[in-house]
Structure of PARP catalytic domain-containing protein:
Amino acid sequence: MYHGTQQKSICSIVKKNLQPGFAQYYANDECRDQFGNQVYVGQGIYFTDKLLISTQYCQYTPICNKQFAVIFMSRVSPNYIRQSKQMKENGYFLINKSLHIRPYRILLHEKNEMN
């Protein structure tokens, strides 16, 4: 799963793991939990399985005449994934608590004319 972020958040994520942010657009959407119960998506950390979607949330930084953004690649516990119908249509997933997330790779995405 991919999580794009702003430059100012990178150090905090590395030190303290991913934390829920202020933008909780789907928090009041309904979804099913791991037991099949109807629940609200709630607040949490947003992910996507599509790299290009995650780049929409990045801040690119110039380095040697190129532009790069940081994207965190993470493993998540599948039992704790929340995804409403609208989230599924838009390619988003949510994990409510950071203890169910394990960032394991930092990607540098190079911006080009195509994205």
Summary: The chain is about 15% helix and 35% strand. The first helix runs from residue 10 to 16. The two ends are 19 Å apart (CA to CA).
